[in-house]
Amino acid sequence: MSDLTQTATKGTAWNTVASLARIASALLILPILTRLLDPADFGILAVGMPVILFMMLFNDMGIGPALVRADNPSKSFWSTAFFTNLVMGTLLTIIVYATAGLAADAFKTPRAEPILQALAFALILNCFSVVPGAWLMRQFNFRALAIIEIVSSFTGIAVAIYTAQQGAGAWALVWQQLTMFAFKSTLLWACARVPLALTFDWREIKAILPFISNLLGSQIINFFARNSDNFIIARVLGEAALGFYSIAYRIMLLPIQFFAWGIASVLLPTLSTFKTDLPRVKQACLRVFRIIALITFPAMAGIAALSEPIIGVILGPKMLPAAPILAILAPIGAFQSLSSSQGAMFMTLGRTDILLRYTLLTTIIVVIAFVIGTRFGLVGTAIAYLIGNMILVVPIFRSLLGLMDGTLRDMWGAVGITAINALLMGAIIYLLAEYLRFSGATDLETLLICIPAGGALYGALLLLTDRKAIPELFDLGRKVIA
Prior knowledge:
22 helices, 2 domains
């Protein structure tokens, strides 16, 4: 194993550890908070957080990835990037605080106004994390990044649980976010040794302006694509429906957060070291798609097959309306687990212009799907979202692989067998779960039987159709444990 491969593998392992901590924190906090808070409380946060996350795009402005991708960024570049982020964070905090009432009115949720005003301070807290985060990523110090993520997440959880027990309602979720961002920024600066000076050079920004402008445009459009569901559902179907949808979406994202995002965050610094060697980039990207599919595809198939007992056991009976939504969103999670790494690949190749165009296409199709879907209720919205994602798969992957002299046949060779195995396993486990339900088994008993059975069945299918996958997965698991 080369030094670069070993470093990237260690980085992925540490990111996986951080993802495991995020999943553990979600599994810890969701069952507690869903019993302490109302669905409408989650709906209010789902109204406020998209506004904050959108504004955070302007904190970074694509400068963070540009720092990671740069061959040899100067001290002036680091300083200019930091002060740019600081000024933007301050301005955005003021803007969001002053316009919180307008945003709440737009969502027809007056209770969201003070929530948004408080969350506005997350913007200035987050602006301090961009530059030290890029520095640690360039140093491949994913161990420090993972530990910071874990400490920040669990500190936020502790605050959320305590304040929820004190009757804070939706404000418990607000304090969770503010605590997490404050701890993250503080710890990043404690670990990073960024070369800063009291200088600002516009030429440093001008040199990367085409890269960051296309990237920022893509991130803005992608944000609207990912959050248009929250806006449309809140306005058409109400806070409670949005609460059920957002909870189902959170659970769907867990396998992606666990693994796909861990790999995606390592891709940009790793691929950037040999970005001009297209055959090697293609080989690495197809390898990434294969590894992601081996983990996330069966996970999503299992979530779809067992959505009702999963919701019943983890979140309680009052959240069962989220179960059919979760079953429909799970296949979308399989698509998104692969697409989560596309941004890093386009950035590595310096083609943020193509990323911008396809992000615009994605947004148009997804928004149309939601507008049509809400006419048929919450389930109709989820189905429309699934159809929109299926339409987008072929053109986006064809474009990305074409930049590396690859084809869709290469893509199918990387993930095709895995997709078939996952679908077959999911169908059998669904039938088993239905049999157990009619036999009188509880939700917990169904999960205790079906989850091991699904794992064993998937392993057997791999032995029959893709034997190389077994040692690959064991080797990855060994590195994560190590």
